[in-house]
Amino acid sequence: MAAGRTIGPDESSSDRSLDATFVRRRRLRWFALLGLAILGLALVLFSPLIGPVPIPAGVVEAILLHETFQGLLGGSACGAYPTSVRQCTIWAEIVWQARMPAIILALATGAALGLSGGSLQGVFRNPLADPYLLGLSSGAAMGASILFVFQVDLASAYLVLPVFAFLGGLIPGAVVYLAAGRTRAVETLVLTGVALAALFSAFLATFLLINPLGDLQVSFWLLGGMTGATWSRAGIVVGALLIAGAVVVLRARQLNILQLGPDVAYSLGVDGRRVARQLVLTTTLLTATAVAFTGVIGFVGLVSPHIVRRLGGPDYRSVLPLSAAMGAVFLAAAWDVAQVVIPSVVLPVGIPTSFVGAPFFVYLLYRRRSLTGGPRV
Amino acid sequence: MTALATTGAPLSVSSLSVRLGDSRVLREVTLSVAPGEFLAVAGPNGAGKTTLIRALLGLVPRESGEVQLLGASVDSLSISERARRVSWMPQEEPPGDNVSLLDYVMYGRYPHLPPFTGEGAGERRIAKAALDEVGLGDRWHSGAWEISGGERQRLRLARVLAQDTPSLLLDEPTAHLDVAHQLEVLERVRGRCHREGRAAVAALHDLNLAARFADRIAVLQHGRLVAQGPARAVLSPSLLQEVWGVVADLREDPRSGVPYLIPRLPTEVARVQSPAPGLRVHVVAGGGSGTPILRQLWEDGFTVTCGVVALFDSDHTTAEELGIPVATEVPFAPLSPASRAEERRLLDQADRIVVAPFPVGPGNLANLEDLIPYAARVPILLVGEGDWSRRDFTGGAAPGLWSQLVAGGARVVRTPAELVDALRSEPRESVPPGSGA
Predict the structure, then answer these.
(1) Cα separation of B62 and A63, whole Å?
(2) Residues with Cβ within 8 Å of residue A277, at least 6 apart in sequence
(3) Beta-bridge partner residues of B168
(4) Is A335 exposed, middle or buried (0-12, 13-18, 19+ CB in 10 A)?
(5) How far apart are CA A272 and CA A265, in angstroms?
(6) Which of A266, A372, A373 sits opposite B79 (nearest CB)?
(7) Could you say which of B88, B98, B110 has the minimum Cβ distance to residue A314?
(8) Which domains are present in chain A?
(9) pLDDT > 90: what percent of chain B?
(10) At residue B39, does pLDDT exceed 90?
(11) How many of the other CB atoms lie within 10 Å of CB of A343?
(12) What whole-number distance in Å separates Cα of residue A319 and Cα of residue B151?
């Protein structure tokens, strides 16, 4: 097909500048990803310092080192720090079995929400889409909370929890998918989602309060938190993130084309409805898995894609992975803030994210169009 | 493209009917486009042009009938196979993201790429070449939101060109374009058809553009195909009257031989068909000098007659166009008794006589001579400065007659507008003698 076109003599220099621009663009995106990865690593290293029990910094890092390379280094978990074996064991337990899983869960959940937000914004061509604002998170939390009605022991139920969360998330997922087929008004879809979120939150609170122990859990489920994180829970979220991430990122090009509307996308060979079904299902699953262990956390999925569009442009091949990275860093940082902002109190992590996200949401409402674009780099 | 089974016409529909809601938008349309052919679809708003194009893409449910792309039923083709056979430039399209123009055009390459692969340098070359074709090549890095409506339209055409399909569907491709780009865009599309053997279907509102660029015009009315064929066979004042309810004059471009239509306002048409009653003014003209006067008087509602002018004189053409009765003479011949008799008949009926500043030679000097008897009976208005140096070819006879008319009470005015004022301000029956000059 290209045989009919000849490359003129002076075209080569313009072609070179064309290619150079694309190389520069790709490099910029990798730098953005690298920068976020470094931030994430810094959070992994320093967040375990934070917590109600004061543990010397040197000891925390020694424990991290010791546990990461188990057995290879030998010696005490606490390194050279003069302390009793019993004290050291307790500290090691706190750092490695409580704080580390929490920070990994925060990173994975943030990535899951960021990725979900990015892909929902693409699917619905709606810059205000977000798993929280569309009611997916609340639906998932309600689904999970059904288990509390039957007083299932949560410690042993962690494998069933995501399944119920997914089933709960499917309700708002289906409603929002159908609503998007009927209206192109950006606000209508979000208002539908917000209404669903309110409804499911009411159900959620009811289900939790049926259980006599549940009232303690209401704030956790409605506003989210990493308390109760374990390695296996964090692992499940990481696993879901990897699988869903592959499904979503492989459809990035189709998402790009879908921005031209379903009809034009169709004429270009993209089945918009199929892509939308697949992605709504995948993001519901991903969001539900995270929500099952962290509760409802708002705005991470809304804010992250907008920030990364400023960094790497509107191409979903960069928006999706960068949103995941941005979401991870955002939520892990929010978790740190939630633990230190009031001494001896751990706030639900949804509080700091809302402090950032809610004003941002209002800002987006009024500056929407100029924000979805970002620079074309 | 090589893999395509090219057993049939690039695009064909047979007895296609489409119902949208309660209304039948297309009724039994049968149409086929050959390779290398550019078909224009015309018709009033709501005639079904857009629906026909969308049906060719398989985007609207059909009530009955068949749509085929290169001999294969559109339903039997996978969505990506369709996208390799036919491309589409819609009338409107969501703004999408603010991606660079080059990225936007590369969307057109999507159906040609294997799944899950990105565009490489080759795709960029093709997209850049398509942008060059529509004149946006040097702005490939601009954002899709940062260009004007007309540029956006050309950008969408570039995407269609990059899609590189044997058939192109264009819905109002010239809607937001200036004249230069209208010509350029349609020339591109025609070139794609004639040089590369592609087939194109374009919905066009401008019949003159359609006549000029398309090989064939199909006319839709209320969802029915009412005419199709080459412009010469299809375009006619009666078709325009029947389908659009517009009266038009058909002309031919002398340079290309292509027919074109001049639509007329209903008021214009009514005036030509039944002249308004009013002051009856006879204009003595010739050599094109009477044209502005005739138009002005006609527009201002006077009942106008004209004479004696030669056939093919532009004054004669103007009078015919405006439906003005005119006394006619054969070109280059002296005024004959017959034409002078006709002229006198018109002069007799006139309430006012206007003399245009026409060049006077021995052949038409009679035009002035014949006025002398009327000077006493009918008010006469002479248009012009009285400068005879450039229009007297009678050796002084014409200026003599002119002076005689002025002496007899004729009034001199400079311009057609001044003439109208003079005609309006003068009471009908009493012209003060010697009021002119």
Answers:
(1) 70
(2) A177
(3) B87, B200
(4) buried
(5) 7
(6) A266
(7) B98
(8) 99-371 (1.10.3470.10)
(9) 59
(10) yes
(11) 7
(12) 27
Contact between B153 and B173 (Cβ < 8 Å): yes
> What is d(CA B12, CA B2) in angstroms, rounded to the nearest whole number?
20
From the list A18, A256, A269, the residue facing B128 with the nearest CB is A18
The pLDDT tens digits for B255-268 are 888 888 888 887 77
Grouping H, G, I as helix, E, B as strand and the rest as coil, residue B380 is strand
Give the separation between CA B227 and CA B43, rounded to whole angstroms.
10
Min Cα separation A327/chain B (Å) = 22
B296 class by beta-carbon count within 10 Å (0-12 exposed, 13-18 middle, 19+ buried): middle
Instruction: Compute how many other C-beta atoms are within 10 angstroms of the C-beta atom of residue B260.
Output: 18
Report how far residue B85's alpha carbon sits from residue B5's, in angstroms, rounded to the nearest whole number. 10
Which residues of A fall below an 8 Å CB-CB distance to B?
Answer: 1-2, 4-5, 7, 14-15, 18-19, 21-22, 125, 250, 253, 256-257, 259-261, 263-264, 266-271, 313-315, 317, 372-374, 376
Cα(A38)–Cα(A49) distance, rounded to whole angstroms?
A: 18
Cα–Cα dist A305/A155, whole Å: 34
Can you tell me the mean pLDDT for B302-330? Answer: 90
SS (H, E, C) chain A: CHHHCCCCCCHHHHHHHHHHHHHHHHHHHHHHHHHHHHHHHHHHHHHHHCCCCCCCHHHHHHHHHHHHCCCCCCCCCCCCCCCCHHHHHHHHHHHHHHHHHHHHHHHHHHHHHHHHHHHHHHHCCCCCCCCCCCCHHHHHHHHHHHHHHCCCCHHHCCCHHHHHHHHHHHHHHHHHHHHHHHCCCHHHHHHHHHHHHHHHHHHHHHHHHHCCCHHHCHHHHHHCCCCCCCHHHHHHHHHHHHHHHHHHHCCHHHHHHHCCCHHHHHHCCCCHHHHHHHHHHHHHHHHHHHHHHHCCCCCHHHHHHHHHHHHHCCCHHHHHHHHHHHHHHHHHHHHHHHHHCECCECCCCHHHHHHHHHHHHHHHHHHHHHHHHCCCC
Mean pLDDT (10-residue bins), chain A, 377 residues:
44 77 89 96 94 88 86 71 84 91 96 97 92 95 84 72 93 92 82 94 86 67 87 95 96 94 94 94 96 93 94 93 97 95 87 94 75 40
| CB neighbour class for B28 (10 Å; exposed up to 12, middle 13-18, buried from 19) | middle
* Nearest of B213, B207, B296 to residue B246 by alpha carbon: B207
Distance from C-alpha of A239 to C-alpha of A245, rounded to nearest angstrom: 10
Interacting residues of A91 by C-beta distance below 8 A, sequence separation 6+ = A53, A55, A59, A60, A63, A77, A78, A83
